[in-house]
Design a protein that fits this description.
Blueprint lengths: L1 H12 L20 H8 L5 H4 L1 H7 L7 E5 L7 H8 L4 E6 L2 H14 L4 E5 L12 E7 L8 H11 E12 L7 H6 L4 H10 L3 E5 L8 E7 L2
Parallel strand pairs: 1-2, 1-4, 2-3, 4-5
Antiparallel strand pairs: 5-7, 6-7
């Protein structure tokens, strides 16, 4: 696993020279304040963190699955994902931030998660091998995909036939608070249309108790 991480890190250092999304620049800062990000992302007041177990359950992850967490951040979902895939499965934590990748590797090693691989990705690709994963989860990250067509194509390529992608993101609408309106570029209907246009088949929207500012969509690769 660590060897794969090193290879992918070297390959993707070149990818970081590509055009970067302005609102993502902070995450690629080598001096990123990691403690601040941990406090921000791993906080029970953050809806998706408080509901992480329910989200993983809704994603239908089963023992033995290979699951990619695209936009894994500080690793808020590592523990429930590792538990869901079991010893026979694998978790691939994908990030554009080298600081997050380093932290994810440290967390996995310290926790003894031998089935976790960390991947340093780019702004246009999840940089995963073709047909390499059974499930993908994208948690509060899709709205950061400015080149969403390229990112979706890479994730479609990475999923095995019949594989499922779960997208959780902010539900932007007229009644949303100002931060969501200013931060999220489109409503969930637009996101669904973009994902379907990339070849994914919509399965369902799942409502989770306590989820008020986010939505959860599931898609399948035919």
């Amino acid at each position: 696993m660590k060897t794969l991480f090193l290879i992918l890190t070297v390959v993707c250092l070149a990818c970081q020279g590509m055009a970067q999304a302005p609102h993502n620049d902070g995450y690629t800062d080598p001096d990123l304040d990691l403690d601040r990000m941990i406090n921000r992302f791993e906080n029970e007041t953050r809806e998706v963190f408080a509901l992480r177990d329910a989200i993983v359950a809704a994603a239908g992850i089963a023992p033995g699955d290979v699951v990619a967490d695209v936009g894994a951040g500080t690793g808020a979902f590592l523990e429930p994902l590792v538990a869901a895939v079991g010893e026979a499965g694998q978790v691939v934590a994908v990030e554009i931030s080298i600081r997050f990748v380093e932290h994810l590797r440290q967390v996995a090693d310290e926790a003894g998660y031998d089935n976790v691989t960390t991947v340093f990705s780019s702004f246009t690709s999840a940089t995963l091998p073709p047909a390499s994963v059974d499930k993908i989860i994208v948690i509060d990250t899709y709205h950061h995909f400015d080149d969403f067509a390229s990112m979706l194509a890479s994730m479609f390529h990475a999923l095995r036939p019949g594989g499922v992608m779960t997208v959780v993101d902010f539900d932007r609408h007229e009644e949303s608070r100002d931060w969501i309106k200013g931060h999220v570029r489109a409503p969930k209907e637009t996101f669904r249309g973009e994902i379907e246009a990339a070849g994914f088949a919509f399965i369902e929207e799942i409502t989770i108790e306590g989820m008020e500012e986010n939505f959860l969509f599931r898609f399948r690769k035919p």
